[in-house]
Amino acid sequence: MxxxxxxxxATEFSNPNLEILYSADQIRTRIVELGAQLTREYxxxxxxxxxxxxxxxxFMADLMRAIDLPLTIDFMAVSSYKEGTVxxxxxxxxxxxxNPIRGKHVVVVxxxxxxxxxxxxxxxxxxxxxxxxxxxxxxxxKPEPRxxxxxxxxxxxxVVPNHFVVGYGLDAAGRYxxxxxxxxxxxxxxx
Length: 191
Ligand code: IMP
Ligand code: MG
Prior knowledge:
Strand content: 25-35%
Helix content: 25-40%
Radius of gyration: 17 Å
Bound molecules: inosinic acid, magnesium ion
Largest sheet: 6 strands, mixed
Distance between the termini: 26 Å
């Protein structure tokens, strides 16, 4: 029984096919910094955090607890049509916001900006809804494959090299979102 449990515990968080880029401790420290910055910059404003499902779920949960202000949250789910692994920039809204953002200060919370096509389109859509301001917080910024060079990320957790990364909400074919750290999958064929 105990052997079984330790086997289970070793299969994902200690998966030898993962190379850790940012540890849970490093992530915690960075989130506290981002939260303090947002707390300063949104004093006295009606702040709405809009999480983009599913990848942002963990970042959203940690970031909101690091912001010492009254705020509300909402979620959107979008699917970007991909040709193979390349995003085409067409975005379908799978789940829209539950509440209007008119007159609010919005921070869109995303897991990673890669080409930037998904986020650019999403910001365009939200931009027509009468918010006072819309800013972008992305846990990771992968600048190398960026197509939308003009996309501004206002709050970034970490800048990552041009590798496929997983953990802390980010997945590979649905797996690895539960890793408490950010890792590179060394051999995707073995994933
Ligand atoms: P973009 O439109 O190319 O910026 O794609 C953004 C979306 O692709 C992100 O929200 C992620 O869901 C996914 N994505 C891009 N790069 C990675 C990665 O390295 N790991 C996991 N998901 C990724
Ligand atoms: Mg995403």
